[in-house]
Amino acid sequence: MARPKQSPRHAAQYADLPPRGPVESLIYWRSAARSGAALGAGLALLVALACCSVVSVLAYSSLLALSAAVAFRIYKNVLQAVQKTNEGHPFKWLLEKDISVPAERAQSLAAAATAHLNAALAELRRLFLVEDLVDSLKFGVLLWCLTYVGACFNGITLIILGWIALFTLPKAYEMNKPQVDANLELARAKINEISAKVRAAVPLGRKAESEKDK
């Protein structure tokens, strides 16, 4: 995807940036206007869902879109009548556009979703049935932390925070990649060191690890 046009003042900051797909371009703010619009529209929708029911949000959103389409159609018809032109239907290019999902695309998405689901189920089975004691203890600590998160935030609030983080954290990481990678490596090394000590102290952990090696 081609990068958006930038003024000379901002051209230098995009010179060394890696190419991104359309979704990644929004997340990494390759075009501030598009990314800001996506962030704002998503926040507006999520805040509306937090205040109203899903049915109400869908109904009002659809009604707003329908009203805008009808008003634009009437405006174009009146304009054509006044100017005595025959430009046709204002949404002709959208009506003629193929919006069907190819069967191959649907099958590939279903296969990818099935693979992720199977991997998640296998991992959950491994953690809940304590195949590796240390990994299950880590999972238990994570679940314990989530109880505090759930006590402070509801589901829609977490989704709103996640939406904001989606548009801020990747860009912040891209701008500070060396420092973040260095700190993450230190944290990973510390966690691996603690995990190794726990596995060495717990016989069950050593047994599970030896079975994996076999």
Automatic annotation (TrEMBL):
Any single Pfam family the record assigns to this protein: Reticulon
Subcellular compartments: Endoplasmic reticulum membrane
GO cellular component: axon; endoplasmic reticulum membrane
Gene3D superfamilies assigned to the protein according to its UniProt record, in alphabetical order: 1.20.5.2480
Main location: endoplasmic reticulum
Membrane topology: Multi-pass membrane protein
Keyword set includes Endoplasmic reticulum: yes
UniProt keyword annotations, A-Z: Endoplasmic reticulum, Membrane, Transmembrane, Transmembrane helix
UniProt key word Lipid biosynthesis: no
Transmembrane segments: 37-60, 141-169
Domain Reticulon: 23-214
PROSITE patterns per UniProt: RETICULON
Designated name of the protein: Reticulon-like protein
